[in-house]
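Quick one, tokens below. Sequence please?
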């Protein structure tokens, strides 16, 4: 008897003195009442059952230490302290993350609104909400990041880059100044790319275009990005800011510029004179040549113009539609550019990659089929013309499934955009054959992601490429689109898991959005105000991350996130490889959040 008392006293002492070994991960934003709701328990220990369920009898110590027992968990109402639901954890593959125990804790059946926490294995989750309004205002919140990334003038860092840019790589006009002021800084490097800008704008436009209830988009900022309403939803202000710049980047037929600046000495925004070692006072503006261009000491693998021109075509087509009544003259500018951009893509098929002079990193986009498919599908969406339907179907069949999902790996932005919205638009066709074909292709793609997740505690099967978060939220939206079109709920749990991953249901327990949700454990950053609302790159393949230039490699013994870094991917708060927001991923998330806000209202 004495021995047993000592045993328990010893165990208590051990628990009190050692570091935390179990964690419950949740979506910190919360859950809509009808959402699939699964929290995840992870532990560096063998998790024992909750003794409180055994009404004082406890579990014989011998049994407890010898067995891994599926734990019971409780969902507790935070106001009353009473358990409203009890369930059993579902065993998942902890070893995948180098952990001892992992369980999925499903409490989907609880729909009552309120504030809760989960208690399991002697630990508690943070408090979270179930409610129809948990996502209210979230897509607008992310616009904070876009406003802070505005180039030329923005509410956070003020005036910058007034001399963008000077033409390079043009057969006859290199060295000339061209007005390409505007657009957004892509990320901390302040470069500007049409690749990411087009994808960012398109996602915001689709969010607005598809929203049945446009009242979710508020008007609290002016066209200049400063507080004060101007009678226009702020998402449209931001879309317009991007489109204005894209129009500048295509001043005449077949004259496109693909990027502005190339990483040569430009960190602090100068007000008068841009620090550039190109010809003349301005950052270099890269003419879209369709030929390989320099990346440090090598050349990129550009083979044509179609990936870039295709993106312009889809943005101009949808942009013209959105501004048709709001600003007919602006709409006309885009209308005039949309089809010629598509024609140019057809004339010079192939991919366009970006360039970089001082760093080895560039957007290595290899695929262009998806971009012309999206352009054709957008024309089809807007015109219902069967010619465009046939073209969309032709391209879509050539790249039936997202290559990232097929191969399970990709170089930096190799298959881009991270998700193919063209398939979604084609699947919405009124033509039954077309709709059936593309709905099935969507299913096949999602099945690959689900299969790759296997028994991962977080049900996350999107490969850990650089900027994996963008691919993750893209896949979540794709799963949602598929479910809406097909009515098939096979991927509903995965859809929720991918969304929850972004907001904290991941090994590290961080929400990957700057400052969101307010009060949550959120991704921090070096320039906090400017990063508010930005979605960061996210966890990255371990070996790949070790190769990144200039990233301080932390010894595992000194890593505060060490227990969670033993799996296939790492996440570091100090790394530009994992914790830097970018405009395109942020806009993918704006699109997804606009869906969640709609669903909350319904
Ligand atoms: Ca506004
Ligand atoms: Ca592409
Ligand atoms: Ca980055």
């Amino acid at each position: 008897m004495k021995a047993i008392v000592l045993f328990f006293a010893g165990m208590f002492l051990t628990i009190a003195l050692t570091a935390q070994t179990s964690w419950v991960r949740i979506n910190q934003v919360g859950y809509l009442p009808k959402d699939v709701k699964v929290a995840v328990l992870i532990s560096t220990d063998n998790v024992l059952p909750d003794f409180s369920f055994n009404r004082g009898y406890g579990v014989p110590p011998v049994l407890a230490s010898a067995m891994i027992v599926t734990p019971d968990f409780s969902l507790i109402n935070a106001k009353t302290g009473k358990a409203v639901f009890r369930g059993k954890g579902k065993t998942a593959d902890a070893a995948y993350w180098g952990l001892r125990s992992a369980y999925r804790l499903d409490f989907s059946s609880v729909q009552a609104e309120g504030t809760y926490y989960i208690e399991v294995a002697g630990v508690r989750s943070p408090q979270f909400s179930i409610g129809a309004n948990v996502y209210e205002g979230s897509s607008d919140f992310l616009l904070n990041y876009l406003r802070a990334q505005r180039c030329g003038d923005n509410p956070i860092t003020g005036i910058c880059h007034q001399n963008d840019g000077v033409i390079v790589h043009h057969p006859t006009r290199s060295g000339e100044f061209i007005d390409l002021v505007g657009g957004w800084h892509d990320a901390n490097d302040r470069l500007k790319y049409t690749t990411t800008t087009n994808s960012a704008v398109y996602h915001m436009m689709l969010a607005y275009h598809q929203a049945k209830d446009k009242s979710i988009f508020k008007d609290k900022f002016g066209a200049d990005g400063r507080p004060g309403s101007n009678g226009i939803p702020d998402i449209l202000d931001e879309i317009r800011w991007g489109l204005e710049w894209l129009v500048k980047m295509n001043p005449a037929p077949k004259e496109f510029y693909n990027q502005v600046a190339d990483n040569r000495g430009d960190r602090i925004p100068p007000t008068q004179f841009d620090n550039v070692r190109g010809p003349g006072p301005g950052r270099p503006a890269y003419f879209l040549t369709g030929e390989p261009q320099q990346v440090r000491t090598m050349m990129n693998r550009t083979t044509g113009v179609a990936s870039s021109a295709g993106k312009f075509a889809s943005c101009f087509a949808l942009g013209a539609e959105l501004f048709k009544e709001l600003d007919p003259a602006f709409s006309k500018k885009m209308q005039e550019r949309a089809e010629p951009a598509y024609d140019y893509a057809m004339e010079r098929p192939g991919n366009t990659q970006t360039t970089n002079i001082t760093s080895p990193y560039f957007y290595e986009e290899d695929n262009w089929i998806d971009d012309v498919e999206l352009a054709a599908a957008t024309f089809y969406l807007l015109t219902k013309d069967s010619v465009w339907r046939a073209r969309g179907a032709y391209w879509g069949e050539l790249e039936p499934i997202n290559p990232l999902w097929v191969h399970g790996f990709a170089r930096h932005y190799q298959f881009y955009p991270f998700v193919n919205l063209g398939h979604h638009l084609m699947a919405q066709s009124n033509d039954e054959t077309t709709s059936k074909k593309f709905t099935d292709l969507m299913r096949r793609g999602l099945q690959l992601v689900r299969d790759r997740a296997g028994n991962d505690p977080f049900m996350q099967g999107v490969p850990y490429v650089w900027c994996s978060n963008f691919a993750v939220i893209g896949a979540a939206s794709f799963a949602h689109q598929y479910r809406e079109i097909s009515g098939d709920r096979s991927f509903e749990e995965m859809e929720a898991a991918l969304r929850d991953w972004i907001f904290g249901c991941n090994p590290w327990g961080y929400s990957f959005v700057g400052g969101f949700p307010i009060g949550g454990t959120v991704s921090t950053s070096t320039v906090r105000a400017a990063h508010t609302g930005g979605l960061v790159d996210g966890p990255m393949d371990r070996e790949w991350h070790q190769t990144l230039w200039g990233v301080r490699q932390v010894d595992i013994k000194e890593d505060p996130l060490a227990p969670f870094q033993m799996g296939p991917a790492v996440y570091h708060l100090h790394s530009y490889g994992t914790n830097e927001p970018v405009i395109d991923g942020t806009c993918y998330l704006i699109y997804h959040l606009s869906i969640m806000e709609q669903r909350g209202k319904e």
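Residues 307, 365, 367-368, 370-371, 416 surround calcium ion (ligand 2) (CB under 6 Å). Residues 1-17, 50-62, 64-68, 267-280 have pLDDT under 50 and may be disordered.
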